[in-house]
Automatic annotation (TrEMBL):
SUPFAM superfamilies per the UniProt record, alphabetical: alpha/beta-Hydrolases
Source organism of the structure: Mycobacterium innocens
Record Gene3D superfamilies: alpha/beta hydrolase
Domain called KANL3/Tex30 alpha/beta hydrolase-like: residue spans: 20-188
Protein's UniProt name: KANL3/Tex30 alpha/beta hydrolase-like domain-containing protein
Entries under InterPro entries matching the protein: AB_hydrolase_fold, KANL3/Tex30_Abhydrolase, NSL3/Tex30
Pfam annotation, one family: Abhydrolase_11
């Protein structure tokens, strides 16, 4: 399994995979973020092949934020989904943390890649302290089941703001609230990965 093209790392299940999960990182991170590692481990435990990969800007340089319009990163997401689609049969779920999740949702909203569901972690509803700059204009175009896993202390959006954003999506949705967590979704009390995966499996089951 060669994932060098997308700088990807696969978490393999025991036996034949039920489907594929393709996840990427936030603006300041990379594929090795603790959150992505835990979530991919959890998907593999449920019998899914899970891949965490670096966005194109992160492949170009090891540190620093994204640059430009995001077009290159969205093209990289399309590429990653297509690469991973060939790795196993079954459903394909895509998503990511913060910037990576938002860009993935934009790809799916635009119809640039087909997925069976989205799983978005710490969706950046707006920049911190700037609720007037909502990042929600594409959400009405999302037509697949979508899980939002979100901390109740996230400066990129309150739970109430997230609920208003999620209401723009006509497809089935679920919000997984992580009490007390901030943007990194770190929690000593809750198993964030297990809650997010369970929610996604529920939505897929219909």
């Amino acid at each position: 399994m060669n994932l060098d093209r997308i700088a990807g790392i696969a978490h393999q299940p025991d036996g034949r995979a039920h489907g594929v999960v393709v996840l990427t990182h936030g603006a300041g991170g990379d594929r090795d973020s603790p959150l992505l590692q835990r979530v991919c481990d959890e998907w593999a435990r449920h019998g899914w092949l899970a891949v965490r990969y670096n966005l194109p800007y992160r492949r170009r340089r090891p540190k620093g934020p994204p640059s430009g319009s995001g077009d290159a990163d969205r093209a990289g997401i399309v590429d990653a989904i297509e690469v991973c689609r060939g790795l196993a049969g079954g459903s394909l779920i895509a998503g990511g943390h913060s910037y990576g999740g938002r860009q993935t949702s934009m790809v799916v909203a635009a119809g640039a890649a087909e997925v069976d569901a989205l799983t978005l972690f710490s969706y950046p509803v707006h920049p911190p302290g700037k609720p007037e700059r909502a990042r929600t204009e594409h959400l009405p175009s999302i037509t697949v089941p979508t899980v939002f896993t979100h901390g109740t202390s996230d400066p990129f959006g309150t739970i109430a703001e997230l609920r208003d954003a999620v209401a723009l999506i006509a497809a089935p949705t679920e919000i997984v609230e992580i009490t007390g967590a901030r943007h990194d979704l770190a929690s000593k009390a809750l198993d964030v990965a297990a809650l997010a995966v369970d929610a996604a499996l529920r939505l897929l089951a219909g």
